[in-house]
Amino acid sequence: MDNKEFGNQLEKRTKLFALSIIKLSVSLPNTPESRVIKNQVTKSGTSIGANYREANRSRSKADFKNKIKISESEASETVYWLELIEDMNWVAHDKLKTILIEANEILAIFTSISNKLKS
């Protein structure tokens, strides 16, 4: 698989992930505490793909690196919020497990890309 094909697949994957985050967000309880977490996880979970898409259309190598680092950071933040949701038992474990696995895989991908850009 070449870089362009990989990029297209990762754009699709992060978009599907964003959709799953939005669906999860809708299912969270409507309490003051959960609304805070709902807002945060929705922002960070949808930002991953948006920043990656911008990275793929960047004007310079430095801009590309910056957007990749933002995607990595947003993925890490999303894992954090998902872990809080899990610890609060706001969503059935089996429903959250799949999203959490995907979040960790996406984080690993962006961490790997970011590490390769350092060398």
From TrEMBL:
Stored InterPro entries: 23S_rRNA-intervening_sequence (IPR012657), 23S_rRNA_IVS_sf (IPR036583)
One Pfam entry name: 23S_rRNA_IVP
Protein name: Four helix bundle protein
Species of origin: Ancylomarina salipaludis
Entry superkingdom: Bacteria
Xref: SUPFAM superfamilies: IVS-encoded protein-like
